[in-house]
Amino acid sequence: MSDGALLARRDPRSAWPVLALVLVEAALVMTWSAGFVGIRFAIDHAPIFLILLWRSLVSGLILLPFGLLIGPRIRLKDAAAHMLFGALAMSGYLAGFALAIDRGVPTGLVALIADMLPLAVAILSWPVLGQALTARQWLGSFIGLAGVVIASGWSIDLGNVPLFAYALPVLGTLSLALATLLQKRSRASAMPVHQSLCIQCLSAAAIFALFAGHEGSVLPVLDPGFVSGILWLVFVATFGAWSLYYLALKKSSPTRVTAVLYLSPPVTMIWAWLVFSEPLSLGMAAGLAVSLVGIVMVARAKAPPEA
After folding, report:
1. What is the DSSP letter of 275?
2. Helix axis angle, 193-215 relative to 48-69, nearest 10°?
3. 131 vs 125: CA distance, rounded Å
């Protein structure tokens, strides 16, 4: 047996696990950012909640036979827990931002608030997990946030928007943060990702159906733009992003996983450049560099002991 293999057996945090986690996090950022592309394709063809409904419903129905036939038997109490996680992590998070955009909150500002997720996790970590951030983690989080401000600030335009609308993405961010921490603490988190994601998608679809019905109809739009946008959102933004998010959450800490998402606004700009030929900016590059510094600080900091 080689020296490298012996070292890997002695140290469970050897290079391969670390490398695997970094690759998962890189894929998470790419697929998380790709969700904006799918929305961009579909938004001109259907109301926002109809898009969210069919994204969640199609995802859940595709996963349903795998969830029932592959993996351990799903217990009722575990299913109920993941229905709650779906209501918070998917319905609460996505609906908060969709409503904010619908009310006229600028997309750049919504993206900025979305990337305050690590700070929301920090705020809720003490009451939920009995755990606070270290000074290094706080500093890294604020540096990462500063990078987001630099990268996204060019697109922020407050405009004439009702004041309450700005609270909607904040509530969405807190909803996802709460779901992240509750799932990390819950015994139901041991459920395989394909089963938990199926339950969460279907529970989110039920909630989005209420909003879509209020908008007018729950029937899909038979339009190539709508269909292609839904397929992109299902296979890339849902199966890709949320599966990787929960996989990373199982293998790492909530603080590290959410800090990595600081990279999503700059990567979204790169997606827009590649797909829609939107120009890149020096502000994006500078923000990306600053965010990366903050992410490294948070990721390498040791978590404080639980109270």
Report:
1. H
2. 150
3. 5
Could you say which residues of the chain have pLDDT below 70? Answer: 1-16, 106-109, 111-112, 115, 118-119, 122-123, 125-133, 151-160, 185-189, 278-281, 284, 299-307
The sign one gets for the Cα dihedral 63, 68, 72, 76 is: positive
* Domain coordinates in residue numbering, the chain: 32-300
Which residue spans within the chain are E strands per DSSP?
Answer: none
Kindly report the CA angle at 269 between 246 and 133, in degrees rounded to 5? 45
What residue type is 173 in one-letter code? T
Closest CA to 93 of 77, 126, 116, 125: 116
CA–CA gap between residue 132 and residue 136 (Å, rounded): 11
| pTM as predicted | 0.73
Rounded Cα distance between 50 and 205, Å, is 10
| pLDDT at residue number 60 | 92
